[in-house]
Input
Amino acid sequence: MKTIKAQLSVGLVCLVLGLMLTLQFRNVQNYGGILSVQRAQELASELKDARVQRDSLQQRVKEYESRILQYEESAAEVSVIAEGMRQDLERARLLAGLTDTGGPGVVVTLAEVQPDQEFNVFYIHYDKLLKVLNELNAAGAEAVSINEQRVIATTEIRLAGSHININYQRFAPPFVFKAIGDPQTLEAALKLKGGIVEELEYYGISVSIKKEQDVFVPRYSKVLEFKYAEPVNK
Amino acid sequence: MDRLYKSGVMFLGALLLGLTFTVQFTTSQEGVGIVTSDTVPQLENELHNTRAEIEGLRQQYIDLRSRVREYEKAVGERGDLNEILEQQLEQVKMLAGLSEVTGPGIEIVLDDSSWEMTSDNDPNLLLVHDEDILTIVSELKAAGAEAIAINGQRIMFNTEIRCGGPTININSVRYAPPYTITAIGEPSTLYGYMSGSESGYLDLLEYYGLQINVEQREELVVPAYTGRTNFKYVKTQKEGE
Output
């Protein structure tokens, strides 16, 4: 009698143990387990530090930028030539993507209706992003950003591993386009019958378009310089 | 001996069970709502991007600091900024695509397929499409191209490349094949992104029978953009506005 009891309890313990092990194993398989949790916590704290550093640098950069603008404005006040050049410079900087800009336009968000959890891939391919940008340009967009990356003449949109590179930064869905231009025209170009929105929806991508009176498009966030191209001397 | 063995097994079992419980509990406690399968890659991307931003800001800071010194010096010595403004203007115009530039790079010539159009062939596969050119241009940019033109039309930040029947519109100007794409940058890098590598997009197009010629060049000229630049909607936003 006593042996049976003992055997039963051992059996029970083994059963529970087996269950626990299975659960634990599945948990690890699904979520990467403890290692992944630790890694995520590590990353989160590194990210926090990096953001603090970025914000303080940004502050200093803005201070210097406004000092330069002050110099240019006070020079323009006393000289007509300087004023002309200051205006040309402002326009050229706008075209080069070197200034923060604002104006009416649209905010277009591309998201996946059903993200693929199993393979961790996404359906929004780089060519879809290129097409949306191209349509916005054809509709007269005057400044565009994708996930806060200003689109300049050298901006690439390219699949790199499991993410998409834009200005050599890494992104995954959702993708948010901000475009300045005539809101009506921009929206109509995307929503054209047989156009890009229909195509995206066919591929399981949800598209939301919001017309706004004041869209903010940030400047290109690095120093822009050429290593190979030089001006042709006339 | 037998009893000792049994209680040993029991003890071990209980120990394992306790450990598993604890581990299981801690995992699920921290895991709930925080860690899913894509949290780690997402955080890695954000960290990568924030670090790249910091690097960009550092460069900007150094650049701006030396410019502020130049401005101070010019105001002190000459009393005006005309010379510096002129230099700045030249530099920014070049970066925006408003001046003609020269340098090493590659030249790509793309033409429709020379294959006969038969009922077996999908005629769509035999033509150069806007999407092909869009991808090529984006790949060239990824490879570090600094200035690009197609049939002499400069690619700006807002250039559209769009099929209009058998022709393609670029900066609202209509072009027909063959398309000549010129890009200034490091020639072998540009070439490597286009051909021979696993992602070589030109190889794919060639497979479909398009006629393609790629050449590395020591010196190319990419013309200035000459289209309209008088924008109606966009405004520069200054600090504090």
In short: Residues 39-77 of chain B form the longest helix (39 residues).
